[in-house]
Amino acid sequence: MIWKEVDIVSWMDKTNEKIQANKSELTILDRNIGDGDHGINMSRGFQKIVDQLQETNYSSVSAVLKDVAMLMIRHIGGASGPLYGTAFLRLSLATENIQTIDTTTLAKGFHAATAGIKQRGKAKSGEKTLIDVWSPVTKYMNDTEEINPTKLVQVAELAMENTEDMLAKKGRAAYLKERSIGHIDPGAMSSYLLFQSLAEVLEGGSTT
Length: 208
Prior knowledge:
The protein has 208 residues and is mainly alpha-helical. 67% of the residues lie in helices and 0% in strands. The longest helix has 19 residues, at 103-121.
């Protein structure tokens, strides 16, 4: 698939639909181990993102991704805004001055994005955060010659589910210690929805 500006917009549209549909579940998950506002913050932020993208004409994939990053930082509350924003800013930088964005370039971009999340959040895999979804998905993307959308969703879903048995070591959830075990991380779920939407765009094939 050759990525163009419209594909990023479509990705954000699909993600917003899923975030809105799962707003309550995200809120419940975050209420169990966090502040209880992840669903609200994500739904508000992604609605702002799609509204802005629909009103703007873009000349490159990098420009869309940069706008998404800035909107995430500005409109998604809590720690999620800066983390997601950093990821998309790194994606933007990885695709800058590249006219043809293929899945190989995208995979490299996600590698940079995941590194950005780790650096910004001062976190690593196994600490019950969104990194526990981003890392295995990024590894899959970079280890395969051609990204299979179905496999991508499977990797993301399993990674999300694996956070249920993890002990939280970052954020408010870390204060719960052993009581954080038995709950899926809300950031892991919103990340799963993001990658599920990405897979749907990949499934749609190339744009011309």
